User: Which sequence fits this backbone?
């Protein structure tokens, strides 16, 4: 440590005192300029995305205003576009996904961080990372040919027989629909929840656990009442991250949701989501207003994920800093 | 006695809940093996030489393959790498070696934002700038869309690995009178090359399976694509189209394509991790 603090000040002035021309000759200034252009292009592309989405959705924004989000009729022939069914579908499927994925993911993360020996934990984490790398179209493929038949023939009839009095489990069992899309999404986002939550739990200082155990709590009590609350903010962050993924997920949802814009009480009902309608209709969209309405949906998706990702980053950062400050 | 019973209850709850967490972990990991097993079972039976060498058969006819989609995916990924990796790599060098903290903050923020943009929105963006102005779908547009997605992953991890290079190496080079650029190109980048290679491979694997950005950029093609300016078929889009088709034989080929694609992606992931774990260990912050 001492050596760095003594060398840095002496190295600084020497570099700084070389003339601009000398640095130019060494290639430093050229390298700085070239790498700067590449770095700046990242910012440029990001801004360009915002600009294109905003500029590309001028017509529907002016024509419909906020009614775009409140009306339910999506009729390209009549040039009438209301996005509520798609927003509904996206929110319902994402909420379902979290309902399933959060308990499962956090449970698994607790096992990996608190219980499993380091070797086993790392091996399982390796598999979880691979799972996160599986492309969504593969999830969609398995969704169509495995999850949909199982839902239609087993799960949905069973739910109907036992909980059929609830309005959310009424109606014919098609296999496709909100519930199926939610389940496929849940499977897809679990790896994200596990990976991030595990990191967060591992960053909780050891003395927290030891103090709880010394006070006579069982292993589960120290985990659930001390470690998890300590990591709560970061775990929330992982959930937001998963939610952002679920909202923007396209292929797997498109393949199992049914692609019928509808707002229904029943989770068995086929529906549609923001990402799915864009994937399905964008190439076929004729007329500026139609295309631009789809782009406006893209803008909505962009804004939603932007907010969620931002929140997630802040929460995860806060918790891991709290952990390291303690250690 | 009641004290004892309470303790026994608490211990039971503890053991039960901890077992449940184990079950959660087992179920989550089992999904991977289930996916693999199912793809190998269904896809393995459908893979044959035709799959790799033949064009898709006319609609409704059995047989044929996905040779054009395999070549199309390769072309798209080549374009994506040529576009995305230089921006990510040199951008990371700027962040790690040249920039002040304010500029670095803005670039990092933009990269993280870009990383979170849903792939379908990237598709819209690529359509707006690379398809709409030219009035036709093209391999270029698809490669551009995938390339944009590679930028943030390459940039952020490369930067992390560059910053992980020990300070002493930097100072040693400077003390010998090397210019900053010389130091970067002959000392720092070589020291971090395993990490950088891993970052690029992971970015590559991530976009290799992307479907949504290709739907309205590269579109699809049932024949060979005549050059970079034409729409092209790709494996992920073929899986999507074939899985939704009403034909048995196309379903069979979708499974085969799924197996090929997933095998490729998992192998790249495993190689990337192997490269990293055998190289210099850079602490992840």
Assistant:
């Amino acid at each position: 440590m001492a050596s760095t603090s003594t060398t840095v000040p002496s190295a600084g002035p020497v570099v700084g005192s070389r003339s601009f021309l000398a640095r130019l000759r060494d290639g430093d200034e050229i390298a700085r300029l070239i790498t700067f252009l590449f770095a700046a292009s990242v910012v440029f592309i990001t801004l360009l995305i915002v600009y294109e989405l905003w500029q590309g959705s001028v017509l529907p924004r002016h024509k419909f205003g906020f009614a775009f989000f409140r009306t339910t009729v999506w009729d390209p022939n009549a040039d009438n576009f209301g996005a509520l069914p798609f927003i509904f579908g996206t929110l319902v499927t994402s909420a379902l996904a979290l309902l399933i994925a959060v308990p499962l993911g956090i449970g698994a993360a607790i096992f990996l961080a608190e219980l499993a020996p380091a070797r086993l934990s790392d091996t399982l984490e390796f598999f979880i990372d691979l799972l996160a790398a599986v492309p969504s179209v593969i999830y969609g493929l398995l969704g169509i040919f495995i999850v949909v038949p199982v839902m239609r023939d087993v799960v949905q009839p069973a739910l109907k027989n036992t909980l059929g009095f609830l309005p959310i489990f009424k109606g014919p069992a098609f296999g496709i629909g909100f519930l199926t899309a939610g389940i496929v999404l849940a499977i897809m986002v679990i790896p994200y929840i596990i990976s991030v939550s595990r990191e967060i739990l591992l960053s909780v200082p050891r003395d927290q656990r030891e103090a709880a155990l010394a006070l006579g709590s069982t292993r589960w009590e120290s985990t659930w009442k001390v470690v998890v609350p300590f990591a709560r903010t970061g775990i929330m962050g992982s959930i937001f991250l998963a939610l952002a993924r679920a909202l923007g997920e396209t292929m797997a949802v498109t393949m199992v949701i049914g692609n019928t814009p509808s707002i229904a009480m029943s989770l068995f009902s086929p529906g549609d989501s923001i990402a799915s309608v864009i994937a399905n209709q964008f190439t076929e969209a004729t007329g500026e207003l139609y295309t631009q309405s789809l782009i406006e949906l893209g803008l909505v998706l962009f804004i939603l994920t932007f907010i969620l990702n931002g929140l997630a980053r802040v929460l995860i950062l806060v918790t891991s800093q709290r952990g390291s400050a303690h250690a | 006695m009641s004290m004892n019973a309470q303790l026994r209850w608490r211990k039971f709850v503890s053991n039960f809940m901890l077992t449940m967490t184990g079950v959660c972990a087992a179920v989550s990991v089992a999904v991977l093996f289930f996916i693999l097993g199912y793809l190998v079972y269904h896809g393995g039976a459908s893979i044959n030489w035709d799959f790799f060498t033949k064009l898709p058969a006319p609609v409704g006819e059995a047989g044929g393959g996905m040779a054009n989609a395999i070549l199309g995916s390769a072309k798209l990924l080549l374009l994506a790498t040529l576009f995305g990796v230089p921006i990510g790599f040199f951008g990371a060098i700027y962040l790690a070696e040249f920039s002040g903290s304010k500029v670095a903050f803005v670039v990092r923020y933009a990269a993280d934002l870009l990383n979170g943009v849903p792939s379908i929105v990237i598709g819209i963006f690529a359509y707006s700038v690379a398809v709409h102005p030219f009035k036709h779908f093209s391999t270029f547009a698809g490669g551009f869309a995938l390339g944009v997605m590679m930028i943030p992953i390459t940039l952020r991890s490369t930067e992390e690995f560059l910053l992980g290079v020990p300070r002493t190496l930097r100072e040693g080079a400077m003390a010998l009178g090397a210019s900053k650029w010389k130091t970067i190109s002959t000392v720092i980048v070589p020291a971090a090359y395993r990490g950088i290679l891993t970052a690029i491979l992971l970015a590559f694997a991530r976009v290799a399976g992307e479907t949504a950005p290709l739907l309205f950029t590269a579109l699809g093609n049932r024949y060979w694509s005549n050059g970079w300016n034409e729409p092209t078929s790709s494996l992920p889009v073929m899986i999507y189209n074939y899985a939704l088709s009403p034909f048995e034989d196309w379903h069979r080929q979708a499974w085969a394509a799924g197996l090929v694609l997933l095998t490729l992606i998992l192998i790249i992931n495993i190689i990337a991790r192997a490269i990293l774990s055998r190289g210099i260990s850079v602490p992840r912050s």
User: Anything to note?
Assistant: Chain A touches chain B through 91 residues (CB under 8 Å).
